[in-house]
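Consider today's protein:

***
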Amino acid sequence: MSIDQIIKILKKTESFGMQTDSFLNTLAFTSEKKEYSTGDLIIKSGEKSAKCIIILEGKAFIQKKTSPIELKPGSVIGLLSLINNSHPKDALIAGAKCLVLVINRELFEKLLHEFPDFNKNLKSKLVSDLNKKVSSLQTTLRR
């Protein structure tokens, strides 16, 4: 997959779509690209190293106890783990042959340092998401 194709996918994500072209180029070029086959473990439950995975091709499943959650190209998982340095609770399993982009702790810290707008945009997105959740909960509680 070319860098341009990766950037096109990143631009469609909520987490990275608002970032500059320079940031997206850096992310697409420096992130690790990994291929997985059907059934491969992408992230282990309780894995000690925080990382963010972006599905580029194929599909994957977050293995929940009740029912798995399907992720398709453009899905981002684990960004919050990098932000708050936590460990994933659930396993991520390749549901078909897939290609993923991996953002590890070192790259994440480098991006935050080199692209101050990334940090600002990330905070704004988190605040917006949190406000939506609080509003939704308030609406539910009023019923």
Remarks:
- The chain has a mean pLDDT of 88.
- The helical segments are 3-11, 21-30, 79-84, 105-114, 116-142.
- The chain has one domain: 3-126.
- The domain at 3-126 is CATH 2.60.120.10 (Jelly Rolls).
